[in-house]
Amino acid sequence: MGTVETKKINTGKYNTFFCEGGESNSETIIFLHGSGPGANSETNWRNILPELTDRYHVIAPDYFGFGNSDHPETPPKSFWEWTNCRVEQVLELMDYLHIEKAKLVGNSMGGIISLNLVMTAPERFEKVLLMGSGGGEAAPTPEIARMVGFYKNPTYSALKNLTTWFVYDQKSLGRELETVINERFENVMRPEIRKSFTHNAFPTMPGESVIPPNALKQMEQPFLLLHGVEDRFVVKESSLSLLQHLPNAQLHLIKGCGHWIQIEKREIFLNLLTQFFEGKLD
């Protein structure tokens, strides 16, 4: 396993915290995390990034309004304003690090940001892997409602419930369960994180987070869609919807798996990721 370091840099408009490894490699993969309470790049990707540093330059940022990146004094007022800031943040980070082109891995809300990055700067992204991704047409679930409203009852017990609901079988988290919960609970209790999350403007009306089909059909990059059959935060119908409109996409549904494929089915995830980015799934 390779070495991954954490860094924080100012790229112009944003102070961005990120994980980075394999800098000497020519191909870059940018990993984008989800939006649950206390979510950040380290807890989302720390068991994945070190496995890839021998062949890829890997980067995983905390979004604007998450983790150890900037938290705005005056938060954006809508879901799309937040999304546009995060698209701008990733492109600024690429420019600062002199990354002309990259591959993308987007988990959950990270999938929505990935799709908006491709829509904004298609020439900069070669291949895209989406995992439990939003952006497709799918009905919200009771679990996602509890996640969005977490700060109505921000207790350790509530966070533990959410964390175990992310996976199909909480035993898959093993010894990591308490570690992940403790780390995330420490994060969610920080006042700046609480402020950003409660003003994070999650989608408030039907279709607000859906990528327009007319935009999807213009995305010519190869896409690999991965979705846990038992995902209760972004249901599999989201990926089925994306598959219908993306012209160059394939979908792998994984049984016995919830929202965190990278944890529950880590070896399957790594295998599919490397095969896809190496052109062996084309």
Structural features, described:
There is one protein chain. The protein is α/β, with parallel strands linked by helices. It has one domain: Rossmann fold, CATH 3.40.50.1820. The protein contains 11 helices and 8 strands. It has helices at 41-45, 79-96, 109-120, 142-148, 156-165, 176-188, 191-198, 213-216, 237-245, 261-264, 266-277; strands at residues 5-10, 15-21, 28-32, 57-61, 102-107, 125-131, 223-228, 249-254. An 8-stranded mixed sheet has the order 1-2-4-3-5-6-7-8, sandwiched between helices. Strand 7 (223-228), helix 9 and strand 8 (249-254) form a beta-alpha-beta unit. Helix 2 crosses helix 3 (109-120) and helix 5 crosses helix 6. The longest helix is centred in the first third of the chain and has 18 residues, at 79-96. The radius of gyration is 17 Å and the shape is globular. The model has no long low-confidence stretch (mean pLDDT 93).
